[in-house]
Amino acid sequence: MSAYNFGPEHPMSPMRLELTASLARELGIFDLPQVTMMESYIASDDELATVHTRDYIAAVRYVGEDPTRSDPARGLGTEDDPAFGGMHEASARLGAGSLLAAETIITGSALRAVNFGGGMHHAFADKASGFCIYNDSALAIMKLLDAGVSKVAYIDIDAHHGDGTERIFWDDPRVLTISLHESGVTLFPGTGFSNDIGGPTAEGTAVNVAIPAGTSDAGWLRAFHAVVPQLVEAFGPEVIVSQHGCDSHRHDDLTHLNTSVDGQREAALSIAALAEKVCGGRWIATGGGGYNVVSVVPRVWSHLMAIVAGKPVPLRTAVPETWRTHVMEKYGKAAPLFMGEDADTWWRSWEVGYNPSDALDRTVMATRKSVFPLYGLDPWFD
């Protein structure tokens, strides 16, 4: 998985995958009796072509064969997505991780699955974007649909708008995409507003909550709970696919939100509960963005894996000393002492009231006005 490597100066460092895997291993998550580890593979062109154009796949392979090549029209060899040797193979391996996750759900060999190396939500059918080459979440969703799953809900809590996944399913009424992200007014890719609700045959299946810059756990979780559970329950999916980019953290250098490890863990717990309530627990979780690769990403995604496994790690759990030593010896970085940050994750329920002078409440209200009436929710907006 760590072959997905844009180079030492790029913020998408494979170090975050190694540190996440090693922390999860030290916490004993991989040794739980209900957990099975699966080795990924390089997805075939036919598999990739379920969501990507064959011309694009050929372009990725061509650029990856010689990193001096580029194809800016397809987003390859750019500042965000520099060419590197073996780009096709590395990207196809990340994609296959989510295909494997979908396969386990389809066969019933697992109820839940995680590909923390995935979550490449900016990749479009015919173009790379925002550090993303192949869209593994879209691949997993399409595999589920092709296997006969009638509806899939995709929940994206990355700080950046899940534009690629949304666009791939823009006009597909079988897929509900919900993206909770920092507003495009202040952050790449500059899209994902409340009036972006899907194509003409799938209105209401694209949902966007454009969170104001500076929002902390209380507002972020308030927005999540004011939109996500209601729509997912009304949509009635058979499977939930979620993207857990952790770049909304206050110590992430690429974004302007103010959440904590604790808040992101709380969101994962909420998605787990939603999967249990709505679709019999069937749930695929992926990683995504996240650029504080020592103190944030490994903890958030280890929490995610533990939650998926049904064995959440308490926030006051000490970070294993063996892992902290490993981080210092290999990377020269001081690792955190505990799995949580003692953050206040209390959030005010939407049902308590709406404050029109609050920017967060206004954006939530805009989303609810755009989409809720289409599901028979908040019908007075009609």
TrEMBL record:
SUPFAM superfamilies: Arginase/deacetylase (SSF52768). InterPro entries: AcuC, HDACs, His_deacetylse_dom, His_deacetylse_dom_sf, Ureohydrolase_dom_sf. Gene3D superfamilies: Histone deacetylase domain (3.40.800.20). Residues 10-306 form the Histone deacetylase domain. The keyword Metal-binding does not apply. Keywords: Acetoin catabolism. Pathway: Ketone degradation; acetoin degradation. One of its GO terms (biological process) is acetoin catabolic process. One of its GO terms (molecular function) is histone deacetylase activity. PANTHER family: HISTONE DEACETYLASE HDAC1, HISTONE DEACETYLASE HDAC1-RELATED. Belongs to the histone deacetylase family. This is Acetoin utilization protein AcuC. It comes from Arthrobacter psychrolactophilus. The lineage of its organism: Bacteria, Bacillati, Actinomycetota, Actinomycetes, Micrococcales.
